[in-house]
Amino acid sequence: MVVRSKLSRELIAVFLKPNAVQSFVPAMDRVARELVRKEWEPMAGREVVVYEMAKKYTFELACQLLAGIEDPEHWAGFHDRFASVLAGITSVPIDFPGTTFSKAIKDARFLRKKIGVIIKEGKSRLEKEENPSIPDLVSGYLLTPDENGKFRSVDDTAEKILGIMIGAFETTSMALTFTIKISRRASPCLSRGFQRFNFSLPTTLGALHEAAMEGIIKISTRVLDPNTQFSYRWKEWAWRGCRYDFGMEAIEIMEIAKAKGPGELLTWGDIQKMRYTWNVVCETMRLAPPAQIAFKEALTDFTFAGYTIPKGWKICWSFHSTHKDPAYFPNPEEFDPTRFEGNGPTTYTYVPFGGGNRMCLGKEYARQEILVFIYNLVKKFHRKKLIPNDRVVFKSPENGLPICLTAHET
Ligand code: HEM
User: Which domain of life is it from (predicted)?
Assistant: First the structure.
């Protein structure tokens, strides 16, 4: 059993390794653009709920890129069932009609069956191919034998795929929702500046200047000189100067957008340029970790804060406590993405993806899908929170973070 789960981990690790998932960026962008066209643009000026937008996007990606589902639209109706299974994992385990746990069991059974059908289709397709490729995780499972040289059963594969889809979809949706909740809105001045100056250096500086004049931000006068070369250093100053109140991520996103031809999809190279945006997301996940705990096993006896933990005990590690420790994060309640500049936090102090040999395998996949979503949102729209202080109940905003989108003028 242990060997099998190790093998399974290796298989997922190969599929999700950073240089393998790089090729997913255009596909992620295509899905996001479709959502912009079909769902977000028609809602301009009306209420949209960020958590729902994020779930739809991450779920569609999980269907296409992990499970190899070709008609994610058909599957869209099932994402409540995924949410139900997730709720069951953290519920009181009483299997009695009407309980969350009991509903989760039923929904898991339903989904396993549905995934099973996809797997069977994948299997017959792979059997017909002479040199079958591995375009998704399902194919990976079906084509890789276990330690006894046997291929996995449909049920076993369905179980694994269901687990990964659930883990992948909820955490990422949560990270996206909180990023929109916590990070500041892009200032209308910034966007006016973008339009007026066609996104160039004077744009940025002009927009910053305008924002400073309107009292939205406070920045050094040196940054405001529109004749200065827009070097990395300037950008850094601008970033520090406006201190994320400004939605600085919008600047780098607009610069990427400006360099793209019409219809040209994002690439991994573009994702690499979104450094500030990723710092904003990292800082959001520090304050609101999407997965809040992890279980670890003590490999030796050890003493912590006066308590002796014997070898073999299971330990519940709270990411919140680690992330709010002022020894590692001065003014821990302050939202400050600059903490992630340079080498960033020291090892095991920033752990939204866990740590050690069971650390999240989907970290790079998650980074890409989060940045692609933010790129598409920020590039197209201003956003206004409709309930600015939407209360966080348990671990998500009570109302899912309703916002109003307004398309940038073109
Ligand atoms: C923001 C998004 C995500 C967060 C915050 C997150 C967080 C985590 C955490 C905390 C763990 C447990 C680590 C530990 O015990 O030390 C984990 C495990 C895992 N995650 Fe993620 N995750 C995210 C997205 C994803 C995605 C998108 C995928 C797949 C595409 C994924 C696949 C996995 C897998 C396979 C494991 C199990 C690793 C193992 O047990 O060996 N995760 N994740």
Answer: Eukaryota
CB 7 within 8 A of CB 147: yes
Q: Are strands 293-297 and 314-318 parallel, antiparallel or unpaired?
A: antiparallel
Cα separation, 403 vs 353, in Å, equals 28
Alpha carbon distance 178, 158 (integer Å) = 31
Residue 374: C-alpha distances to residues 55, 367, 370 (Å): 14, 11, 6
Nearest CA to ligand 1 atom 27: 168
The answer to whether residues 228 and 252 touch, using CB atoms and an 8 Å cutoff, is: no
pLDDT tens per residue across span 290-343: 998 888 999 999 998 899 999 999 999 999 999 999 999 999 998 888 899 889
pLDDT top residue among 224 and 126: 126
Q: What is the pLDDT of residues 173-223, one digit of tens each?
A: 999 999 988 865 434 444 443 443 334 444 455 555 555 554 444 444 444
Task: Tell the residue number behind the tokens 């994948």, with chain if given.
Answer: 122
Per-residue H/E/C for 293-324 = EEEEECCCCEEECCEEECCCCEEEEEHHHHHC
CA quadruple 164, 170, 175, 180: dihedral positive or negative? positive
Residue with tokens 């509903």: 103
Pick from 38, 53, 37: nearest CA to 403: 53
Task: Please tell me the distance from the alpha carbon of residue 127 to that of residue 243, in angstroms, as a whole number.
Answer: 56
ipTM of the complex: 0.99
Please state the pTM of the whole predicted model.
Answer: 0.83
Ligand 1 mean position, distance from CA 237 (Å): 34
Pocket test for ligand 1, best of 8, 353, 358, 372 (most atoms within 8 A of CB): 353
